[in-house]
Write a structure and sequence with these properties.
three-stranded mixed sheet, 114 residues, single chain, alpha+beta, 14% strand
């Protein structure tokens, strides 16, 4: 009887200790494959993606409304408006540029003329 009790006690201690190994071996799985992602190559001679047709389209729409001092930069995303606009006409300038841009937003870097 003592041998059975000793055997059960040793077996339960062994199972308890192997179950409590800690976090160092918790995520080990022998069936997983490691996948490495390639490192991206640096771009050396990258040119800005410009759309001259969009630039002229927006500038023409602004010139039709009389905003001749506003320039458009389409090398940025979204298109950037620079220059000066008449006092109190910011909303109209932005709205005109957005309509010509296909209802896409534009970035405002303009200043109000005095």
């Amino acid at each position: 009887m003592r041998i059975k009790l000793l055997a059960v006690l040793c077996l339960s201690t062994f199972l308890f200790l192997t179950g409590c190994r800690g976090d160092s071996n918790a995520n080990v799985n022998s069936n997983t494959a490691t996948v490495t992602t390639p490192t991206p190559l640096p771009k050396t001679a990258e040119t800005a993606a410009t759309d001259p047709a969009l630039k002229t389209k927006i500038e023409d729409a602004l010139k039709k409304k009389g905003y001749t001092t506003v320039t458009v930069d389409v090398s940025t995303t979204p298109a950037t408006l620079r220059g000066t606009y008449p006092k109190g006409k910011l909303d109209d300038v932005i709205q005109t540029a957005q309509q010509a841009n296909g209802e896409k937003p534009v970035k405002n870097e303009m200043t109000e003329a005095k």
